[in-house]
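TASK: fixed-backbone design
INPUT:
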């Protein structure tokens, strides 16, 4: 899975992988829910990430 430009997506995906690596599946599920909610509420690339 590619690392997204969006910092929020990146943080949530990292946290999900982290949780799965320690078999904390309830935390991983939380991260997936938060990621979906983040997308629903308008995922955007922060303006300060322009080159
Ligand atoms: Zn995002």
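OUTPUT:
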């Amino acid at each position: 899975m590619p690392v997204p430009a969006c910092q929020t997506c990146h943080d949530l995906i990292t946290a999900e992988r982290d949780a799965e690596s320690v078999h904390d599946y309830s935390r991983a599920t939380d991260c997936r829910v938060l990621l979906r909610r983040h997308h629903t509420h308008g995922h955007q690339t922060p303006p300060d990430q322009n080159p």
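COMMENT: The pocket of zinc ion is lined by residues 6, 8-9, 38, 43 (CB under 6 Å).
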